[in-house]
Amino acid sequence: MLPTSITVAEQVFHLAKAVEADLPELVGLLADDVLGAEREGRDMQPYRMAFQEIDGDPQHCLLTVRDISGVLAGTMQLTLIPGLSRGGAKRLQIEGVRVGSSARGAGLGAALFEWAHEYGRSRGAVFAQLTTDKRRSDAHRFYARLGYEPTHEGFKLAL
Amino acid sequence: MLPTSITVAEQVFHLAKAVEADLPELVGLLADDVLGAEREGRDMQPYRMAFQEIDGDPQHCLLTVRDISGVLAGTMQLTLIPGLSRGGAKRLQIEGVRVGSSARGAGLGAALFEWAHEYGRSRGAVFAQLTTDKRRSDAHRFYARLGYEPTHEGFKLAL
């Protein structure tokens, strides 16, 4: 059983699977970011449709992290991906990571990733993978501190 | 309806969703690679378990590509990932790409990616993403020619 709260620098944060009522705050957190600001919209309908797909598939876990006053402090989306390569290895893919500006620097990000890794291990994942925009140099240092290795080039193409 | 065959340099290749009987050949193709050789094993059991998980989830499409004599010429795993970020964008994730050494250089890889992108679009994906080992410089040039942009750093961590 994974813990549903984490304590960082004497502050307690509650972790939960996102529900639809979380969406406006989640989108606000995604947009509260130098790159996210230009990528996120105001119309909630596409987010609602995406949420229903995420929520309806047990391979995804969209996580909310709230402080004791209920303010959304962080989010990440965890996806389990089975695959043949690397000996039939299951991957834990981590997308859409945000820690609110008020909670940064206190260790919440690192604690959240520890939780995510334990979640992955408990479901049979043997490695975690994520990509981060090359402009996010702070994020690169953060992932390196957690033990992540920048072994791959991350490509994207608009369809 | 997506085409189930592609013609490259007057050679016809048949595309199909992988079945369990394809596994030994698929693993052989994954291992027939400078990096794959050290990553793949001989015991089929972990591959069978991974295959069953892939096959049981409609969000995945593990593809086999065979030439007209039935020889396996390529494979890739396509996964649709809904997400909140980027306006609730659905991603087409591409993993485990291999084109057999006998079929390389003739344009099969590019044709296969065209097929994959059409598959993604037909299922609502608005961008494709993949990562490739930084040592695969030929692959980087190949993806750049297809229009992919190397905007992201790809991190991995053993769990």
UniProtKB/TrEMBL annotation, chains A, B:
InterPro entries associated with the record: Acyl_CoA_acyltransferase (IPR016181), Bact_Acetyltransf (IPR050832), GNAT_dom (IPR000182)
PROSITE patterns (UniProt xref): GNAT
Gene3D superfamilies the UniProt entry points to: 3.40.630.30
SUPFAM superfamilies recorded: Acyl-CoA N-acyltransferases (Nat)
Stretches assigned to the N-acetyltransferase domain: 13-159
UniProt keywords, alphabetically: Acyltransferase, Transferase
Top-tier EC class: transferase
Record has Kinase as a keyword: no
Pfam families noted in UniProt: Acetyltransf_1
E.C. number(s) listed in UniProt: 2.3.1.-
GO molecular function: acyltransferase activity
Highest rank taxon of the organism: Bacteria
PANTHER family: AMINOALKYLPHOSPHONATE N-ACETYLTRANSFERASE-RELATED, AMINOALKYLPHOSPHONATE N-ACETYLTRANSFERASE-RELATED-RELATED
Name of protein: GNAT family N-acetyltransferase
Lineage: Bacteria, Bacillati, Actinomycetota, Actinomycetes, Micrococcales
